[in-house]
Amino acid sequence: MSLNINNISRSFNGKEVVKNVSFEADPGEIVGLLGTSGCGKSTVLRAISGLDTGYRGEVEINGKASRKVEASTGFIFQEPRLMPWLNVMENVTFGLKGKKESKDEIGRKYLRDVGLAGSEHLYPKELSGGMAQRVAIARALITSPEVLLLDEPFSALDAFTKMQLQDLLLEIWEEYRTTIVLVTHDIEEATYLCDKIVILKDRPGRVGQEIILDEPRPRRRGSNALANYKTDILNSLDLSRV
Amino acid sequence: MKKSSELTAGELHGTKPQGRGGLKSQKSRVQTVILGSILPIILIIAWELLSRAEVFPSYQLPAPTVILDTIAGLAADGSLWGHVGITLYRVLIGFLIGTAFAVILGSIVGFYKKAEQLFDPMIQAFRSIPSLAWVPLFILWMGIGEPSKVTMIAVGVFFPVYLNVVSGINGVDRKLIEVGKMYGLNTFELIRRVILPASLPSFLTGIRSGLGLGWMFVVAAELMGASSGLGYLLVLGQNTLSPETILASIILFAVVGKSTDWLLKIVEQKSLHWQDNAVKA
């Protein structure tokens, strides 16, 4: 599915947080929203998701303007946000309807996908941060979303788990070709994952620059090409001015 | 109640394989019981010895064995079950009525802002009246029969349950509600699948303290005027100058009250096994 973000502005209590943000995502594209903290990245993402409807401007999904939560949209939050009273399987199948047996069968497939086969009966309190986020990923994927929104999904994880889950996200993307919008403040993550990086800057946040990354996948972390992109992005963010 | 982010973001811990830890945990449980019993046992033995040595006059503080004999006597002539039964019955009915009202009103106030503005100030005002102050009025209205007693107990149970239902619903993590919304749940489904389970811990806390107050109020209600029940035994003991009857009644109150609380505690542990509680060292 394609996404078209047209001139989104959002104020909270009269204070403008983002101003006239526009960008597009083609079907199957991974778009990164990158910016310093407080520039309104998450605000834009919440507007796209339909969780927040108090914005001005328009979000078009496949050419149709939408202001509510669409069934075709999945959201992965910064924290896993698992229901503590449900076990892993029940959490993963939270968004499914129908009989328990058929739900569990689908659930097992997605748990295998995220490498958690055999953990169905654990409760969130028994999971490590990385495992919990894997469950959250499976939960978001299980409704086969055509647009996947991620709000700094790996920022609370340690460096190794983070890399694992980034690769997991790419594997899943290879399989399902979901359109992905990824909010992040991690430049390396953005250059490793994204086809296009939209840089938000200033307060209220606005689009500073769009960078297209045509580096083929699989990309190598720490390669020169990615390092060059990183330099571009750092220049564009102009951090010395803050 | 802990926030869900804390619940979910923790390290891998808890639930070790049962086989290896089973024996050890059983041993530590026995140890806990023994540790907790030392002081009461010493006190009871000392009490018994001092009573036999007639340090305590028996018309004021009879020996533990005498109290046990009294209870055995009540059990033998069959009146024990009547007294315990009617008291339990009063508490149970009052508890159910109080809880039902508290859950209904508490849910409405918890879910609807307008209802909160409408009802909550008045309920808070009523709460500041010491509930025992209602006793004379209830007796005047309903006589000294069962209705006034049950109402009394229901009033006592109502407030802790109500407060905990409201705060439980208000305290549901907004982040979890957002997850529900992301899956297109409507209001009813959100309540059933997210808000109710998330506010369950607070609700159960309310029910347990409500039951505690229920036991307190049944004593008050039965002291005011009753012809049966454990509270009646208290009055009877006072009027017939037999402290052993009073103490027997107190002990029965303790045993029955503790048992009902224990039942609720089991329900609580069973339904809240998912909670990530700190384990005391």
UniProtKB/TrEMBL annotation, chain A:
<protein>
    <submittedName>
        <fullName>ABC-type nitrate/sulfonate/bicarbonate transport system ATPase subunit</fullName>
    </submittedName>
</protein>
<dbReference type="InterPro" id="IPR050166">
    <property type="entry name" value="ABC_transporter_ATP-bind"/>
</dbReference>
<keyword id="KW-0067">ATP-binding</keyword>
<keyword id="KW-0813">Transport</keyword>
<feature type="domain" description="ABC transporter">
    <location>
        <begin position="3"/>
        <end position="227"/>
    </location>
</feature>
<dbReference type="InterPro" id="IPR017871">
    <property type="entry name" value="ABC_transporter-like_CS"/>
</dbReference>
<dbReference type="Pfam" id="PF00005">
    <property type="entry name" value="ABC_tran"/>
</dbReference>
<dbReference type="InterPro" id="IPR027417">
    <property type="entry name" value="P-loop_NTPase"/>
</dbReference>
<dbReference type="InterPro" id="IPR003439">
    <property type="entry name" value="ABC_transporter-like_ATP-bd"/>
</dbReference>
<keyword id="KW-0547">Nucleotide-binding</keyword>
<dbReference type="InterPro" id="IPR003593">
    <property type="entry name" value="AAA+_ATPase"/>
</dbReference>
TrEMBL record, chain B:
<keyword id="KW-1003">Cell membrane</keyword>
<dbReference type="InterPro" id="IPR035906">
    <property type="entry name" value="MetI-like_sf"/>
</dbReference>
<keyword id="KW-0406">Ion transport</keyword>
<protein>
    <submittedName>
        <fullName>Sulfonate transport system permease protein</fullName>
    </submittedName>
</protein>
<keyword id="KW-0813">Transport</keyword>
<feature type="transmembrane region" description="Helical">
    <location>
        <begin position="30"/>
        <end position="50"/>
    </location>
</feature>
<feature type="transmembrane region" description="Helical">
    <location>
        <begin position="124"/>
        <end position="144"/>
    </location>
</feature>
<feature type="transmembrane region" description="Helical">
    <location>
        <begin position="88"/>
        <end position="112"/>
    </location>
</feature>
<feature type="transmembrane region" description="Helical">
    <location>
        <begin position="150"/>
        <end position="172"/>
    </location>
</feature>
<feature type="domain" description="ABC transmembrane type-1">
    <location>
        <begin position="80"/>
        <end position="264"/>
    </location>
</feature>
<keyword id="KW-0921">Nickel transport</keyword>
<keyword id="KW-0472">Membrane</keyword>
<feature type="transmembrane region" description="Helical">
    <location>
        <begin position="246"/>
        <end position="264"/>
    </location>
</feature>
<feature type="region of interest" description="Disordered">
    <location>
        <begin position="1"/>
        <end position="24"/>
    </location>
</feature>
<keyword id="KW-1133">Transmembrane helix</keyword>
<feature type="transmembrane region" description="Helical">
    <location>
        <begin position="213"/>
        <end position="234"/>
    </location>
</feature>
<keyword id="KW-0812">Transmembrane</keyword>
<dbReference type="InterPro" id="IPR000515">
    <property type="entry name" value="MetI-like"/>
</dbReference>
<comment type="similarity">
    <text>Belongs to the binding-protein-dependent transport system permease family.</text>
</comment>
<dbReference type="Pfam" id="PF00528">
    <property type="entry name" value="BPD_transp_1"/>
</dbReference>
<keyword id="KW-0533">Nickel</keyword>
